[in-house]
């Protein structure tokens, strides 16, 4: 079964750190670029970061650049998001997502996890 | 940074046709993807590369693009399509980034 399962969310104080994980199964994880997308409560989708299939290229949204780090362990079929210096505006559901079935000209996310909630609050 | 503009809401009666627009500078040169998101669920890709439906998406959902506007059209609307809809593109103008529109809440009257 092709799926992504996020974990690691929770309540954290402002300024602290948290690491999210996304476990992939049912497809050749090491062949695909992987993304993080977040959604603040009652708000729209916001792309956060991407890593290439081998981790050699990474890009970030301006809102998280310098604070968040995306990484992957292809031997464990797992994607990570290390979040530091967390702010209240980082409160959101965090999804991992990728393109595994469709062949789009530019990345379209046809596989999403169920999301993990991060709440930044004192 | 690149901006995609969607109307916050669209309302349509059952059986009618809903059209959700997505505007952006030079969007004609970009591939537009559309997602449907129901409450408490992850988004689902319903159209990619402007007009292509993934397997399992009904034919009454279609995408088009003209000038600086992409449009998602849902024909013969019924309660099951009530959801939030997002357009999305890849922007390579600065660093690579993936941009979502603000989302449109489709309400079936």
Question: Top keywords for this entry?
Answer:
heterodimer, A: 122 residues, mainly beta, 7-stranded mixed sheet, globular, B: 109 residues, 6-stranded mixed sheet, 3-stranded antiparallel sheet
- Multimeric state of these chains? heterodimer
| Biggest interface between chains | A-B, 25 and 29 residues
* DSSP helix fraction of chain B: under 10%
**Terminus-to-terminus distance of chain B:** 36 Å
Number of helices of chain A: 0
Give the percentage of residues in beta strands of chain A: over 45%
What would the average pLDDT of chain B be, to the nearest integer? 95
What structural class results from the helix and strand content of chain A?
mainly beta
Q: Estimate percent helicity of chain A.
A: under 10%
Characterize the main sheet of chain A: 7 strands, mixed
Q: Which series of helices and strands of chain B comes N to C?
A: EEEEEEEEE
Task: Explain the overall architecture.
The complex is a heterodimer of chains A (122) and B (109). Chain A is 0% helix and 48% strand. Chain A has 122 residues and is an all-beta fold. In chain A, the strands form 2 sheets. In chain A, strands 2, 4, 5, 6, 9, 10 and 11 form a 7-stranded mixed β-sheet that branches. A 4-stranded antiparallel β-sheet of chain A has the order 1-3-8-7, with no helix packed on it. With 109 residues, chain B is mainly beta. In chain B, a hairpin with a 2-residue loop joins strand 5 (61-66) and strand 6. The N and C termini of chain B lie far apart (36 Å). At the A-B interface, strand 5 of A face strand 3, strand 7 and strand 8 of B.
